[in-house]
Amino acid sequence: MSVRRRTLLKVIVLGDSGVGKTSLMNQYVHKKFSQQYKATIGADFVTKELQIDDQHVTLQIWDTAGQERFQSLGVAFYRGADCCVMVYDVNVMRSFDSLDNWHDEFLKQANPADPTGFPFILLGNKIDVDGGNSRVVSEKKAKEWCSSKGTIPYFETSAKEDINVDAAFLCIAKTALANTHEQDIYLQGIPEAIPESETRGGCAC
Ligand code: GDP
Ligand code: MG
Question: Taking the mean position of all CA atoms in its chain, how far away is CA 177?
Answer without folding.
Answer: 11
